[in-house]
């Protein structure tokens, strides 16, 4: 890495901060020691202690601040109840629910930032998000996170895209795939030709895991998202209905021929042929991920587990054009959220007991600046990333390597992986929104230079086969296979205790019977279990849950 270039870029990075980082201090270590302390109480962090290394040095030099992180949970135990009583929530707080923020408001220990707006010019430029927070909390007690100034179609591949062993697909002649369920036919043919992976592990048509199941089998439920449906409006989550992003319609997941019931039958058909991983019902995410990295499933319902988990750890295969890529079907229409001007249900707040309120406000406003956005996502300019002569962002040699590598000593040292994003885990501006500085999203994985420079032989073959598209999102956009939708300003609907209990009881039945149906020995048993599941779910109040969600969906339809 060119250290002279790095030093120059770091100075430029300091200039970029401008008014959002007044009081910059980068002349000597003695002056850095005069930085003021700001503590962040984070509901989402697992790190505890001072931010050091290259990130800590940047904060000292550019903002004159030492940041100390206090995680809410220690050893699995939340400290929030105690902290609400004592009022010791640090200077800045990251809340992950409206409920917890309201509790802090009721306790009288967080500031209404209305009177501090003039000190938060970068925050207040996100007018929709600020107005939403003022409505929710009857004052500016929280700043929404993951905000964007425009509702933009992102460049990131959707989670719900299926991926398959692309080299095996080409062996079969790249046949046209009519429906999602036809992936099972191709997967069966792949297993017949390749009963074991390159390393001798069992190769299945499909592998699943159950650890993240909520009130249904999560991976199979999510197939609807590749068919123009969603289970969230960006604020509320729908447990028992799939909501169309194309029109004002929905289907409940237990209705006749629903996509969920079709998905259960699809998985059951693979099981009856001995093609389903028998550990699917019991394995954890970690178990599943290990199998994904070894390529033990012909199809990955969440395609990133192929492209981001198998491909990077098998460079000797991808260099030969072997690995996982998107294989579209003729019914593919992926529901995909745009960035939102309203933000999400995580919030930044400022403690009334902040020991250094002005410095806390300065840091908070910096995080919502264009420069702070890039710092939060990628670290200081010139270490892991820079901007070339054409004005395009790119990863440096250091940024393209291992994240366990050390930052240069003059930049502050420390592992590259110890980013502000990782240590605090409190976002501000959406990483998918286009940065005015870069004219690309802050997310480095979708930069044009990254996609071109990191392309393997597998990627190049896929791009050639798909009209020059550099990634799946580009292909979906160019071929009308993406149903992008705006996040509307709708309220978060809290379920009461009684309805919440009904949800849990109904969900437990659906989840239990769904797995039994997947492993049913024949169609007769499958149908019997399905009928029993529906009857039990309805007796427990399934229809009431569906009606509740339909009401929420109707409000979304009216707002969008």
TrEMBL record:
UniProt superkingdom: Bacteria
A Pfam short name: SBP_bac_1
InterPro entries (alphabetical): Bact_solute-bd_prot1, SBP
Name listed for the protein in its UniProt record: Extracellular solute-binding protein
Native organism taxonomy: Bacteria, Bacillati, Bacillota, Bacilli, Lactobacillales
């Amino acid at each position: 890495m060119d250290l002279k270039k790095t030093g120059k870029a770091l100075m430029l990075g300091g200039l970029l901060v401008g008014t959002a980082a007044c009081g910059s201090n980068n002349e000597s270590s003695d002056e850095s020691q005069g930085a003021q302390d700001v503590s962040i109480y984070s509901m989402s962090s697992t790190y505890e202690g001072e931010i050091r290394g290259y990130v800590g040095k940047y904060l000292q030099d550019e903002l004159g601040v030492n940041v100390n992180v206090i995680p809410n949970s220690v050893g699995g135990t939340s400290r929030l109840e105690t902290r609400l009583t004592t009022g010791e929530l640090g200077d800045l707080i990251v809340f992950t629910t409206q409920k917890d923020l309201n509790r802090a408001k009721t306790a009288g220990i967080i500031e209404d930032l209305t009177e501090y707006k003039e000190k938060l010019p970068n925050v207040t430029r996100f007018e929709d998000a600020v107005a939403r927070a003022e409505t929710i909390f009857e004052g500016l007690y929280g700043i929404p996170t993951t905000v964007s100034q425009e509702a933009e179609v992102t460049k990131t591949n959707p989670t719900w895209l299926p991926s398959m062993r692309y080299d095996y697909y080409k062996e079969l002649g790249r046949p046209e795939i009519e429906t999602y369920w036809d992936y099972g036919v191709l997967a069966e043919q792949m297993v017949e030709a390749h009963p074991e992976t390159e390393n001798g592990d069992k190769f299945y048509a499909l592998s699943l895991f159950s650890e993240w199941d909520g009130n249904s089998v999560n991976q199979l439920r999510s197939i609807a998202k590749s068919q123009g449906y969603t289970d969230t409006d960006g604020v509320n989550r729908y447990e028992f209905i799939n909501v169309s992003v194309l029109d004002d319609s929905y289907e409940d997941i237990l209705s006749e021929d629903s996509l969920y019931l079709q998905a259960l039958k699809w998985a059951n058909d693979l099981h009856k042929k001995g093609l389903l991983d028998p550990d699917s019902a019991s394995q954890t995410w970690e178990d599943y991920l290990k199998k994904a990295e070894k390529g033990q499933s012909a199809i990955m319902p969440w395609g990133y587990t192929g492209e981001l988990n198998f491909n990077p750890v098998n460079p000797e295969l991808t260099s030969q054009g072997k690995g996982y890529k998107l294989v579209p079907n003729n019914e593919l229409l992926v529901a995909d959220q745009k960035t939102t001007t309203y933000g999400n249900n995580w919030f930044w707040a400022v403690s009334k007991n902040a020991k250094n309120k002005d410095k806390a406000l300065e840091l908070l406003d910096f995080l919502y600046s264009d420069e702070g956005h890039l710092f939060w996502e990628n670290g200081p300019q010139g270490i892991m990333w820079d901007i070339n002569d054409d004005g395009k962002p790119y990863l440096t040699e250091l940024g393209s390597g291992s994240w366990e590598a050390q930052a240069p000593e003059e930049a502050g040292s420390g592992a590259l992986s110890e980013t502000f994003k990782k240590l605090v885990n409190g976002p501000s501006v959406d990483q998918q929104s286009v940065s005015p500085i870069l004219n690309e999203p802050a997310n480095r994985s979708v930069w044009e230079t990254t996609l071109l420079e990191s392309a393997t032989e597998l990627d190049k073959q896929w791009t050639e086969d798909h009209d020059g598209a550099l990634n799946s999102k580009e292909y979906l956009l160019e071929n009308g296979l993406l149903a992008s939708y705006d996040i509307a300003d709708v309220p978060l609907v809290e379920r009461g205790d009684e309805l919440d209990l009904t949800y849990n009881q109904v969900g437990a039945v659906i989840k239990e019977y769904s797995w039994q149906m997947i492993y049913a020995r024949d169609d007769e048993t499958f149908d019997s279990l399905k009928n029993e599941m529906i009857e039990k779910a309805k007796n427990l109040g399934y229809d009431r849950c569906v009606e509740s969600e339909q009401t929420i969906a109707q409000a979304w339809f009216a707002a969008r």
